[in-house]
Each structure stands twice: as structure tokens, then as C-alpha cells.
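Two proteins, back to back. First:
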Amino acid sequence: MLDLGAGTGKLTRVLADRYSRVIVVEPLPELRTILGERVPEADVRAGAAERIPLDDAAVDAVFAAQSFHWFANDVAVGEIARVLRPGGVVALLWNRSDDPSPLPNAYRRRIAELHDRGQEPADRGAHPAAVPVRRGARGSRPAHADEQPRRRPRVRRVGELDRGS
């Protein structure tokens, strides 16, 4: 299994609990350090989706959780196809907010207030509402994956990845 663009390893921990070998490719050295601490059983490697440091047909699956938008280009897709074994699977995962939000109005107002002031609370652990957020096309979301509200997974089947044959 390959976790591509794993960030802090939220999905990596789940994969490592289920599979005997998990390889992680992460371009940022700071995040690779966190990954090594949080998931020491994973094989953490420097690299990028456009230059995956694996042999051809090396993995049965490639996972990209909350990261594919960073490397959704022809070179990266070609690299993913190259490292997948025949019949391999690509799993692209995203969190989506529930609409309407299950979060209390006071919590959402506090998040928006902190975001609008551009403040980074000194101690994020002090209060659950002290979580910096980013605003995007789909609304506000906590900036730290481990602090996101619980999401319902959505699964979609997609066509087989073109291997350029």
C-alpha cells in the first residue's frame, strides 16, 4: 500500500493497522518527521507524486487522502499508474462537511470569528473552538486534520486508471 501525500498520517495510521506493509511518500520534511513519530511501522520516504520513489508495479493500491488536488496532473497520474501492480486500486478520499452542520452555532461562530481576525490561538488545546480554519469554496474547515469533526464516508467507484497501454 502507498499513502501518497500523507501529511501528518491520519490515514497512514489506519492503513498500518490493516496492512503488513505501508509505504508513505511525502514531500515535506517536517511532515515526514511527524509521520515517523506517529507511524513508526510505516516506510516513510521523501518524494512527490510526480516522482514516486518506487519500482514499477510495486504496490497493490495507492491512497491519497485530502491530497490529490495538490498533484492532479498528467505526470502524477502516470507515476501512480507506473507503481501500481496490474489490477491495482487507486483510492482518492476527501472529507465533506455535513450540510447542515451538526456543530453548535456558538462553535461555528467562534471558528468564524477567529478566522476573520486571522488569529492563531496560542494554545489550540485550551478550547475546542480555538481551532484555526481556512475558508474555501466549500466553506470553513479546521486547519488541522486531527481536529476535524467526524465525517460520513462517501464511496464512489471510478473507471480503471489508464496505464498508457
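And the second protein:
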Amino acid sequence: MRGTLAGIVVFGVYGIHLIWSDRLPTETQNRQIWSAYAWSERGDEWSAHFGGTGAMWLRIVLPGISAFFPARRILEIGPGFGRWNQYLVNGCEELFLVDVSQKCIDACSERFREDSQVKCFLNDGNDLSMLADQSLSQDWVVSAIPP
């Protein structure tokens, strides 16, 4: 599974947005940004203005995905330190986490070490070949882009 990205559709609090690929960071920039980020609150700092991650999950995220969740398999591209995965893990048989940052993959591997259905993968931002034999058809894929 390799290809060129034309754009990303982002479902967010303020509506649906299309971000064209010429405005996205390069693979190298993306890796540098998220490897250097302090992660002082494991990504929860982005939910503070919603009353915290739990409140944001219940009020914003869960209602937005309820038609697709729970799901048998979930792929999250860019899980960071696992902010949403603490909730997603309880609604699937398999949860695949793919990130360009070793720091993020290490944090998720540690955070979900007791959850056998969670599989963490480091990649280059373009390639999902590590999932080639994992059928994700009719399942849910989320790409987490922080606000």
C-alpha cells in the first residue's frame, strides 16, 4: 500500500476541512516535529480547552465516529502518545498504530504493553506494507492531526 497523497480530509470540531498535500509537512519535517515535541501531557494538552481528553472523547470524538465504532480492526495513522487509543482499544479486536516518530511508537508500545490487540509500527509516512496481510477492508481508519 504505497501512493501519493493528494490531500487529507479532516473531520474536526469546527467542521470538515480539506488540506492539500502541498501544505503538509514533508516526511522529514513530520518526523522532526513529532520527535522533538515535548509530549509533556502525552497529547492531552490539546484537549484542555474541551475540559480534558475524556470530555473531548465523550462530547466530540465518540459522537463523530459512533456510526463506525466499535469496529473489528482500527488503524490509526499518527497516534502520537495514544491519546485516543486509550478509548479505541476497548472497541476493537485489533488496533494498529502507525507513526513516523520512534518516540511516539515507543510511548505507545509502553502505554499499551498489556493490550495484546495493539500492534505498533514505525514507518516512513508513505508505506503501509507492514499491514499488507492484515485485511482492513470495511474497517475504520483514523488519521489524528492535532488541533
